[in-house]
Queue: 2 jobs
Job 1
Amino acid sequence: MTPSVRARRRASWLLVSAVVAATGVGTACSEVGLGPNEAAAIELDPFPSPSVVVGDTLRNIDGVATPVRARVFNVRGDLIDDAAPRYLYADFNVDSALTIDSATGIVVAKKLVSGDKRIAARIGGSLQVLRGIRVTTRPDSVDGANLTDILGTSLPDTGRRGLDSNSTKALTVTVRHRDSTALTGVRSWPVRFELLNPANPTNDTTAAAYLIDDQGRASTIDTTDDSGVAGRRVRVRALRFPSGAAVESVVVRATVTYKGKPLKGSPVRVTAPVRRGSGSS
């Protein structure tokens, strides 16, 4: 492990120790192990999905049942390979929304509740880390709507004019759940986006156009909001797209799956018209 990585691990250990001391979880910092096989810090890896469907197991974006995972480090920041963290539902005294196998980290959603629910990973009696996840309804279908407002590009294309310059509005889709009476939006569900025209399958930021999030960062995956809506904007290189004076459309494909299978309507294409603008001071 490189010195920089070890430095980050030491910082993580100090942070975890501070949290332990502040929250009363575990024991004092002085009781954190100092040996090469003694735990000094614990980290929960990012969850395979931001949500788990009620009545189902936590799955990754490809639909594979995947447990939560924690890693344990010694005081030098080295990974302890044979550490055996335990997992638990931290909000068990509030509701019965989740069950978690304490050894394997397999998560099952038992009850639909609102807000983040906390999963904890522990090692020994001293260290614990928490991460939130949401319980959501089963996604059944997806639909989208094309943008009609024409984006007029502007020069010089320096990026100094803010996010809206040479960027479309969000091209959005809505993920829905169907029950016996109505369609409702599915919250916290991952949606994958790909730019088809001008083609950019890897979302190369040096290409004629690429996908961005609401902060202007390159991004191809979004999570639905509480209404079931997810979207991505298209950043256009004004000197390279459109290639001529005519209006041309950017085309984005959104793919949504559950248990590895496309939802009804997936993939869905959404478009936005773009017209080459003129230079301005």
Job 2
Amino acid sequence: MSSGESLSEVGSLLKNLPRKRRSAEEVMDILRQYASRDLDPRSGRMWAHSYETGLEDVVAVAREAYLAFVDKTMLDFTVYPSILRMENDVVAMVASLLSGDERTVGTFTYGGTESIILAVKAAREHYRHVRKGPEPPEMVLPSTAHPAFYKAAEYLDLKVVKVPVEPESLRADPEAVNEAVGERTALIVGSAPNYPYGTVDPIRALSEIAEDKRVWLHVDACIGFILPFFRKLGARVPDFDFSVPGVSSISVDLHKYGYAPKGASLVLYRSAELRLHHIYVNASWPGYPLVNTVVLSTRSAGPLAAAWALLNYLGEEGYLELARRALTTKEELLKGLPEIDFRVLGKPEPESSILAFTSRELNLFLLAEAVGKKGWYIQVQPGSRQLKVPPSIHLTISPAHDRVVKAFLSDLAMAAEEVKQAPGTGAEELVAATKVDKIKLEELEQALPLLLEAIGIGEGRLSGEMALINELIHLLPPETVEFVFKHAVSELFRPTRRA
């Protein structure tokens, strides 16, 4: 090795560790350059991935609390007893909103997926050790349930039994669920609300099934923290929490409508006996006894502190006002979208702060692109031709949208007119030419490089032709989409090469 080479340069084309320190100013300049093409989550112009209040004081309080605890690990609460106190406070405050009582317990996690994995783990262990059911255990869920449940099933070796939702209401069909529950069922899943359409499943009806068949019922309310406040404002919200006797556990995120920084969620249980099934302890090695209440071990306490701070700073009064603003925006959208000939999905209308709309006449993939050029982000839900699920546009409503909803509807109407005259994406022609929808998965790998190149995906780069990609997702069989995406993501996330 020559004296001029850094240790990381030898035998590698990868971007190397800088030989010399960089100044803080230079480092931040590079990060700002990296972020130059990012969307701004605080702009109020994003209708997904952002839960924006538009209030500077809320952001300031969350950041101050986050930074005050960012260096403390949640791994060992005996070293930082403040963590134990904050977590118990947060669980108590949220449980009280969701009809919990003195028996209710919960755990702070880093996100909805982690909360779901823990609930599924607890339900599986309860099935095995309390009910002593046959293997493999099964999980019955509606087709609108979040993919995190499928992920949990894959990790934890459960079989997913998917049942259709009612086609008009887009809510779980209790009769279909009842028929699907059998001797291997470890848990039933209901959503309050589901992510695609914002509808709340009939949790009381699912509870009756769960109680009758002595099965665990989990309610995924990861986007449902706003629902108790909608109800207090007079909106129609069905019972979905621990007021329903058959509910065993609930997942609820605080980094959504609790407005905390990302990495803040809870999984709540009706009793401590149920939670015991998800706690992990290992005292069989030479080191310290490992005690994990979650999937991860080392976690910064920053998100917990920020969540605690906002629950106290906003209180019921603050959350009600933010919910009122979101509800006002929702009402404007429910009035304005049909006036542009869009159809809001779900009858009766969705109970939550999520709406999805579709159109028989317009190419929604091109519509999203046209709206994007006007400075907005709307989320395409490609649907599936094979599964007979139409494409739709998803809108997550934030309080800050009350200031921009009229401008959004105006731009959406203009974009709709533009798309009427636009040529297609070319997806149908590409599928016809390559016959990729007919290729068996074991043969698809050979054609993969050409397909990825055609849609603009290469090592570490994404062209941005999302209209084409989204329409291909709609046209291709789901198993083909999953296969291609797995390989595409592997291409995108590759170590940076030296310039």
